[in-house]
Amino acid sequence: MASGPLAVLLEGALQRRGGLLESLHAEGTDSYRLFHGIAEGLPGLTIDRYGPLVLLQTFRERLEPADLDAVEETLKKGLPFAFSLACSHRGPGYDRPYDEWQRSRLEGAEEVECREFGLRFLARRRHRGIDPWLFLDLRAGRRFLRGAASGRSVLNLFAYTCGAGVCAAAAGASEVWNVDFASSSLEVGRRNAALNGVGAERFRTIQEDCLPVARQLAGLPPGGRRGKVGRFQRFEPRGFDLVFLDPPAWAKGAFGAVDVEGDYPSLFKPAVLAARPAGGVVVATNHVASVGFDAWADVLRRCAEKAGRPLRSLRAVAPEGDFPSFDGRPPLKIAVCEV
C-alpha cells in the first residue's frame, strides 16, 4: 500500500467520524476505532484510540516505514489531541521493523488509562492477547448495561478484564459476578473496578471455567468428561436479573468446547436458566462473521423454548458508528433477550 492512498483512506475515515467523536468526547469517552480497515478500504489494518495511545495493528501484511509516516502525519492533522502512536503486527512474521520505527517516538509506559462514559479503564499496547484489555466494539453492549443495570444483579460470563462488569457496577448494579478462566485478566478487572471506586462488596471475581459455573447456577450438572475434570468451585442454583454472555469464538477445556458457530445452545441454555424467570435478561454476543444475525436469533429462540424459558422478546444492538460494516452485517452481533 503506497503512503498516498493510505493517507486518503484515513482522512476519509476521520471525516466520517467527526460528529461521532464529538458526541463520544462529550460523554467522557476517549476510546474508539479510528480506522476499520475491512470496511474502509484496507482489510487487515485497524487503528484504535485508547486515551493518550493510538494503536495501529496489522493482521496480514506489515506497512512500510513510509506508510507509517503517512499515518502519523494524517492523524496529527486530523485529531485535536496529542497522542503516541504504537504499531503492532499480528500476522505472519515478526514486527521488528515496527519496533525500530517507533523506538524514538513512544513516550511513557506501556500501560495507559483510557475512558468510556467517564469510567476509567486500563489499556496496554502490548501483551499476550490481541486486544489491549478493552474490546472497543462491545461499547454498544456496555452502553445497554448503563441503562439497565441499576439495582439489578449481574452475571458477567467470559468477563475478560471485566469491562462489562465495571460498567454495570458503576451504573448501580446491586451485585456483579465476573467469571473468567484467566487470573491475569481478572486482576486487570479488579484494578479497573478500583479505579472507578467500585467496592469488593458488590464486585466479585471468580477464576473458573465459565461452563461449570453457569451450569451450576442454572441448576444443571457441571458437565465435563469423566477422568478429565479436576477440582472446581461449587455453586448453588440462583437467578440473576442480567446475564452478560460474551464467549470467544472457540475454546476447549475440561468441561467441553466453546463453539459459538457450531453449538451456541450449550452456552445459551445455562445462561437463560441462570436468568431470573419472568423478567430476567440475557445479553448474548456472537463474534463469528459468517453467522448471520437472523439465523443466530432463531437458534437462541429455539434453545430458550426447549429449556422451558421461551423468550418474551429479542432485539439486536448494533456496534456503534466507529465500527462500520460494508454489507450491513457486522461480525459482532449482540442480542438482548428478555426471558
Explain what you see.
The strands form four sheets. The protein has a seven-stranded mixed β-sheet, with helices on both faces. A four-stranded mixed β-sheet has the order 1-2-3-4. The chain has a two-stranded antiparallel ribbon with strand order 5-6. The N and C termini lie far apart (49 Å). Helix content is 32%, strand content 24%. α1 packs parallel to α4, α9 crosses α10 and α10 packs across α11. The chain folds into two domains: 121 residues, 2-Layer Sandwich (Transcription Regulator spoIIAA); 203 residues, Vaccinia Virus protein VP39 (Rossmann fold), CATH 3.40.50. With 339 residues, the protein is of the alpha/beta class.
List the defining traits of the structure above.
alpha/beta, four-stranded mixed β-sheet, 339 residues, 11 helices, Rossmann fold, 32% helix, seven-stranded mixed β-sheet, Transcription Regulator spoIIAA
Largest sheet: number of strands, sense, barrel closure: 7 strands, mixed
Q: What shape does the CA trace take?
A: globular
* CA-CA gap between termini: 49 Å
CATH class of the largest domain: Alpha Beta
Number of helices: 11
Provide a brief overview of the structure.
This protein is an alpha/beta fold. Helix content is 32%, strand content 24%.
Question: Helix and strand layout, with pairings?
Answer:
Elements (H helix, E strand, L loop, with lengths): L2 H14 L1 H9 L4 E6 H4 L4 E6 L2 E6 L6 H14 L5 E6 L6 H7 L8 E6 L2 E6 L14 H10 L4 E5 L5 H8 L4 E6 L2 H13 L7 E5 L2 H8 L24 E4 L4 E4 L2 E4 L5 H9 L7 E6 L6 H14 L6 E5 L15 E6 L1
